[in-house]
Amino acid sequence: RKRVQGDSRRSDKTERKAISRQRNCYTGLNFNSCLYNQKEKMNKIKLLDCTLRDGGYINDWEFGFDCAKDIIDNLIKANIDIIETGFLRNVDFYNPDKTLCSHIEEFNNLIPANIKNSSFAIMAMYSNYDIKNLSKYKGDGIEIIRVPIHDYNIKEELIFAKQINDKGYKLSVNPINIMGYSKEQIIWTINEVNKIHPWQFSIVDSFGSMKKSDLDRIVSLVDTNLLKDIRLGLHLHENMALSFSLAQNFLEKSSDRKITVDGSLSGMGRRPGNLPIELIADYCNEYYNKNYQTDYLFEAIQKHIQEIKNKNNWGYGAEFFLSAKYNLHRDYPEYYIKKYNLSLTEINRILRQFDKSKKSKFDCEYADKLYFSVINSESEFSR
Prior knowledge:
Layout: H1 2-25, H2 31-44, E1 45-49, H3 51-54, H4 56-59, H5 65-77, E2 82-88, E3 100-101, H6 104-108, E4 119-124, E5 144-149, H7 154-166, E6 170-175, H8 183-196, E7 200-204, H9 212-225, E8 231-235, H10 243-251, E9 259-263, H11 277-288, H12 294-311, H13 318-325, H14 331-340, H15 344-351, H16 364-382
Parallel strand pairs: 1-2, 1-9, 2-3, 2-4, 4-5, 5-6, 6-7, 7-8, 8-9
């Protein structure tokens, strides 16, 4: 009884702090109306954890079955709204220790009986998954499927997305590198997505090149053109160490639309990594009166993620800032470092000369050709 009373007092204290902050924020306005709007917004925010999917780029998705189940258990206890459990891929055989599977039923083995209020998601890509392997949604287990679309293959990928939508799953359409889209391309894409009418459309800052003004521009454009009952998601990367700041800015938008923010435990994901979910969960608790139990996030990090990070570190690095600066694929600077042992200054000189058509999809032949072109031209100049 004492512990229940203590939890209640802490909850009341958190709510009073949130109300106090909002009272200060809305000085001169109708406070009760603003507080109502804030509670409405609280109910519209969801957090999605992508550790077992995006984090797999670090350890080749070899989390181990028991480890993956324990991570999921802790995320459920932490009240994380959506848990992404891995990639649907064409694989030769089912390996329970990897979060890559051909059949959605194999992922359902990871989901416990008591899921509280959490939902479960998976990602499927047109380029490496046969839609014939996907059964219709049966009303339990994985209910959300996220589909990346690329500007160079968008029509085929939208057809693939519609097939998933038609099978009864909640569909999220995730345009890769939306920063590389023109205004006209974004509007065209949204109009095509509206025809499918998915559950969610996500803004994906694939190369970590987004700044506040970019986010404001894209959110405004998407919000104006996207059907109002479609959720808006946000997936960020740490190339410029701006993910937490941008996520806060996204949450503070005054739109009435339901929104989702992606994150991962300790930011685990393809280098340089993602928005750390423990940061944005704590922020939502403080400013939106959410009830994410961050101790369970820390427990999962301590038990499972920290050891992986000690072996395969991720996080901000200047080479990834350079790829973000020119809004191109993050593999390019790593490629130049590994193959040619180039300095950051040398990489910068090469990246600034990239052809726009080669930025979004990694092309090692083009990277080599440009390298030799720059080296030869500088040699000629030095003579």
